[in-house]
Design a protein that fits this description.
single chain, Agglutinin, subunit A, Hepatocyte Growth Factor, Phosphorylase Kinase, domain 1, 4 domains, six-stranded mixed sheet, five-stranded antiparallel sheet, 14 helices, 28% strand, disordered N terminus, signal, receptor
Length: 772
């Protein structure tokens, strides 16, 4: 009897334990929430957990994720906010309205569950509950039916596929940047047709296919978990697709096993050279880099003298063709890399027969040569950009790279000047003469300044900003020059612009100027204002409006620019009765791209404009496009804007990341440029009223993309004979514009790449939908 009763008690306890476990984790009710320090929500079998995953190298930042919870590695298999990590104090909540969202401490939405329909994202709401299934699938259920889901993580994969998870036609995985960086990488794995899995790049300028095959499921019942992993593995590694299994634990305790994931299959075997068809482009690692494969693990490396960029590598120090009296050996070094090749990069010159020494010397003395490859007695000289670089140890050869010397190598210049030293006596005599001349000049300058101090209407040469040629004006001088700020040229987000005239010093002639009175400038003292003006004053480029001077007197802060006689690009595009010349519009688009490239990459410190639009593009007498108002964003008060949101920029030209509380990069200018490029092509405003009743608004970016997908780009330039006869160029510019307006900033090209694509230096691949 006692034994029997004990047997029944044991059965009851087991059943009770099972029921408690089931009741504990089966559903997540409405109004539930998790904080960054809360225990995660788990699946009923305990295999998976959903919550905040703390990043190892960033202890105060968290990833909202799903991970394997029974194994020591806590392997992440899905994540929500890779592009916008959550700070401590954030929380994820299943609202009373049935929507799942991640919010920060201030209540700003960082991420929310959305479904994509017709290329647009729609927030999911109205769910009855949420549940993390035993398969690792997080679902929002819109009824009590187990198969009726409003949203599920399995339909929104990141870089991993789990057992039972299906990748339907059109579904895709995206690689992450590195093992610890969850930003979207350069590669995607897509199910193009049923059973056809394609691995390719999403790099701007080319789309390279590395793998295409039928897929099958070889599940192993002796493994506790299985996953298909897709990602950029390692700090400098490129993509691989790998299948992993994890041995089953002999105990329910996760700490009872120390075994790790086992890689049982991967493709491609050598991504560095495994391209299924010849195409131009950056290749596995992007432009100006090379790929090395070691036992299936590929690694990307920039060339010596280059640094990492969005789509490969860029020169750290630009090469100059004009060296003056210097010899190339004084300016450049030649470094070598064994067995490194760029077979798809064109050779602009081939020397044969020759040897390494002659090949190196020839490249060193050739302004156009950046890399020379010596192989089989031939010297192949190449320009930038270099594409599809890889190391092939089966072919004996060497790459010779020309690198600009560092600034401390200027001693070579001094060595050369010392060859013709002046004897000591002559040095003393010359020094005396020079000293006397300097004293005379100083005396004359002092007399001149006192006798001409603050003459109204004269262009003063005194500047309180070092290292620039800017002129310091008094407020009274500018008031006289503008006739009391009488003639207004325009108003913008930074202030009002007036026409003025100043007389040249010691001359009867005068020049026309544009005087901008800045509104609501940050009141952080004179140093802040002058630091920004100094940065603007050091910029010199054909496609930037030239800053002549400034005025800094208390609250009166003004900037003086060269006058642009042809007005703004907005006037040309939207206020002319006749469409501007097509070739003229193409040249304007090219010039703006070059100007932005200079601001982003080539001037002393990077300048992000933050308000690129036709009103801020001015035209000179020859219709050369010049960017204005650059570098002024830092001077604005926080929240000053032309829109109704607390962001900088102008409605219609503002990138999505402004709304997501994420760090702003130069890619916001790229987005605005893409919108403006569509306006240049179509001669239409980015936002227009679709009818006279002013009820419906037509968005140009949507309309252009729809016409592109329909293959009806002729409608974009209807009644424009010149553009209609140049449809190849129209198509090229439209594709560039669509790349620029991608919602994901990482997919947008840099302005360097934009310039290369517009000018035909780099090919333009078919862009994805900008809204996915």
């Amino acid at each position: 009897m006692a034994v029997t009763m004990l047997h029944h008690v044991c059965i009851f306890l087991l059943l009770l334990q099972s029921l408690l476990q089931y009741a504990q984790t089966i559903r997540i009710e409405l109004s539930s929430s998790l904080a960054t320090d809360s225990s995660p929500w788990r699946s009923s079998n305990g295999d998976f957990a959903f919550g905040f995953h703390r990043l190892e190298d960033q202890s105060q930042l968290f990833l909202l994720a799903i991970w394997y919870d029974r194994i020591p590695e806590k392997t992440v298999v899905w994540y929500a906010n890779g592009d916008n990590l959550a700070a401590k104090g954030s929380k994820v909540e299943l609202t009373s309205g049935g929507s799942l969202r991640l919010i920060d401490q201030k209540g700003n939405v960082i991420w929310r569950a959305e479904n994509i329909m017709y290329g647009k994202a729609f927030a999911v709401d109205g769910a009855h509950y949420a549940e993390l299934l035993d398969t690792g699938n997080l679902v929002l259920a819109n009824s009590d039916s187990a198969s009726s889901y409003a949203w599920e993580s399995f339909n929104n994969p990141t870089d991993t596929i789990l057992p039972t998870q299906e990748l339907s036609t059109g579904g895709k995985l995206s690689s992450r940047r590195t093992q610890s960086n969850y930003l979207k990488g350069r590669f995607q794995l897509q199910m193009q047709t049923i059973g056809s899995l394609v691995l390719n790049t999403i790099a701007i300028g080319s789309e390279l296919t590395y793998y295409q095959s039928n897929t099958s499921d070889d599940s192993n019942q002796e493994n506790s978990g299985q996953r298909l992993k897709f990602g950029d593995l390692g700090a400098t590694s490129v993509l691989s697709v790998r299948m992993y299994v994890h041995p089953k634990s002999q105990s329910n305790e996760s700490s009872s096993t120390t075994q790790s994931w086992i890689n049982i299959w991967f493709v491609p075997k050598d991504i560095c050279v495994n391209i299924t068809h010849d195409q131009l482009g950056g290749g596995s690692c992007g432009f100006n880099s090379f790929c090395v494969s070691r036992n299936g693990w590929p690694t990307c490396t920039c060339l010596p003298g280059f640094s990492q960029s969005d789509n490969g590598c860029i020169l750290e120090k630009a090469h100059a063709c004009e060296l003056g009296d210097l010899e190339p050996e004084q300016v450049y070094d030649m470094e070598s890399l064994s067995n490194t090749y760029w077979p798809t990069s064109a050779n602009f010159d081939v020397l044969q027969p020759t040897n390494e020494e002659n090949c190196s010397r020839s490249c060193l003395n050739d302004c156009n040569c950046v890399v020379a490859v010596i192989k089989q007695g031939k010297c192949f000289k190449k320009k930038l950009p270099l594409s599809n670089g890889y190391v092939d140890t089966t072919v004996d050869g060497k790459a010779l790279i020309k690198i600009a010397k560092s600034s401390d190598s200027d001693k070579h210049v001094n060595d050369k000047s010392n060859k013709n030293q002046i004897p000591g006596g002559w040095m003393f005599l010359c020094g005396s003469i020079i000293l006397n001349v300097v004293l005379i000049i100083i005396g004359a300058a002092v007399f001149y300044l006192f006798s001409h101090h603050k003459q109204p209407g004269k262009l003063s040469t005194k500047s309180s900003i070092s290292e620039t040629n800017l002129h310091s004006f008094t407020y009274d001088e500018l008031k006289i020059a503008t006739d009391g700020f009488k003639v207004e040229l325009g108003r913008g987000s930074f202030g009002t612009v007036y026409r003025g005239v100043v007389s040249l010093m010691n001359s009867t002639s005068s020049i026309v100027i544009a005087v901008k009175k800045l509104d609501k400038v940050l009141q952080e003292g004179e140093q802040e204002f002058k630091a920004e003006v100094s940065a603007i004053g050091r910029t010199h480029h054909r496609n930037l409006v030239r800053l002549i001077g400034f005025c800094d007197l208390g609250l009166n802060k003004l900037l003086i620019y060269e006058f642009m006689s042809k007005g703004s690009l907005a006037d040309l595009l939207f206020r002319s009765l006749v469409r501007p010349d097509w070739n003229q519009r193409v040249q304007i688009a090219t010039g703006i791209a070059r100007g932005l490239l200079y601001l982003h990459e080539e001037c002393a410190s990077q300048i992000i404009h933050c308000d690129i639009k036709p009103q801020n593009i001015l035209l000179d007498d020859s219709f050369t496009a010049k960017i204005s108002d650059f570098g002024l964003a830092k001077l604005l008060m926080i929240g000053q804007t032309r829109t109704q949101t607390a962001i900088r920029g102008t409605k219609g030209y503002v990138a999505a990341e402004w709304f997501r509380n994420t760090p702003v990069t130069s890619k916001v200018d790229v987005y605005s440029y893409g919108v403006m490029l569509m306006e240049i092509i179509c001669c239409r405003k980015c936002i227009e009223l679709a009818n006279e009743n002013e009820e419906e608004v037509q968005v140009l970016t949507d309309w252009v993309y729809d016409r592109y997908k329909e293959g009806r780009m002729d409608l974009l330039v209807r009644n424009d004979k010149e553009a209609s006869s140049d449809m190849k160029k129209v198509e090229n510019l439209v594709m560039v514009a669509i790349w620029c307006i991608q919602e994901d900033p990482y997919l947008r090209p840099s302005m360097r790449m934009v310039s290369q694509m517009i000018e035909g230096v780099s090919p333009v691949s078919e862009p994805p939908s900008p809204y996915l």
